[in-house]
């Protein structure tokens, strides 16, 4: 579970993701090395892909978009995002069924 880390504050997690833009549909497509692979339909232009990433994870974890921030990798396919208001066990419970399928 190296893709997910609980942060020191105990009420947020850090998630490593690998983004594949311009996909046919938006979905989690398993693991890519030590990161969760996220396919999104948006192109990597004018921040559209980053906005799609934030929207996807906010909806997935049922948290406000303001609770999802891109901590690193804004211009890269490899990103680290912060999910506020969610613990590592909660995040794992949501992600695990999607990674196995």
Automatic annotation (TrEMBL):
SMART domains: DUF167. Pfam families: DUF167. GO terms for cellular component: cytoplasm. Gene3D superfamilies: YggU-like. SUPFAM superfamilies: YggU-like. PANTHER family: UPF0235 PROTEIN C15ORF40. Belongs to the UPF0235 family. This is UPF0235 protein OLX77_05985. The lineage of its organism: Bacteria, Pseudomonadati, Thermodesulfobacteriota, Desulfobulbia, Desulfobulbales.
